[in-house]
Amino acid sequence: MKKIVLFASGSGSNAENIIQYFKDSESVEIAAVISNKPDAKVLERAANHQVPSFVFLKDDFSTDKVLNKIQEIQPDLIVLAGFLLKFPSNIVELYPNKIINIHPALLPKYGGKGMYGMNVHKAILENSETETGISIHYVDEHYDNGDMIFQQKVSITDCKTPEAIAQKVHELEHEHFPKVIERLLRQS
Fold first, then answer.
1. d(CA 45, CA 94)
2. Digits of tens for pLDDT over the chain (188 positions)?
3. Is 137 a catalytic residue?
4. CB 118 within 8 A of CB 142
5. d(CA 12, CA 83)
6. What does the alpha-carbon distance between residue 9 and residue 43 come to, in Å, rounded to a whole number?
7. Nearest-angstrom CA–CA distance, 161 and 188
8. Burial of residue 181 (number of CB atoms within 10 Å: 0-12, 13-18, 19+)
9. SS3 state at 182
10. CA 19 to CA 24: how far, in whole Å?
11. In the Cβ-directed half-sphere of 74, how many Cα atoms lie within 13 Å?
12. How many CB atoms lie within 10 A of CB 149?
């Protein structure tokens, strides 16, 4: 049985989509949802699917508290699904090519510190881009910098608001993220 740990900071629609995708799998288990926000909706979503959750404070990331929890679970893959903190190097070093992130733009454009969620979509709209998409990449010590695993584009010529762009990007995320995770687990 392959184990996935999901890290999320917000509403958790991607995390829930991944949980649902693997719900009846005989070879993949969502072992835990880990969040740095005690009031994050993702925790409610995890509970609704009987997935254990763990909450930590931002300061705990620089201690071994989160690392110890990860090591206790022994995941085959750590998936960042709307997780906003930079992953500490001690965890990245222990799990090379085992931590992946999804970004709501076509990296390297619109990546880096502060570029998440609506911030990304607003910047894309302000720059009159005609397309955007998603990027799934390995996590390293820098924001949105690791080796690329998968990208998918979508036209946004009909989008007049950041919310309209977000809707198209969410559709891509929900369609492709679980499939990429499944492929990576098969290859490991």
1. 29
2. 999 999 999 999 999 999 999 999 999 999 999 999 999 999 999 999 999 999 999 888 888 999 999 999 999 999 999 998 999 999 999 999 999 999 999 999 999 999 999 999 999 999 999 999 999 999 998 999 999 999 999 999 999 999 999 999 999 999 999 999 999 999 98
3. no
4. no
5. 9
6. 9
7. 40
8. buried
9. helix
10. 9
11. 2
12. 17
Q: What length does the chain have?
A: 188
Out of 49, 103, 142, 176, pick the active-site residue.
Answer: 103
CB-based contacts of 126, cutoff 8 Å, min separation 6: none
CA atoms within 13 A of residue 5's CA, in its CB half-sphere: 20
Q: Looking at residue 188, what is its pLDDT?
A: 83
Token pair, residue 151, equals 């990208």
Q: Do 40 and 22 touch, CB atoms closer than 8 A?
A: no
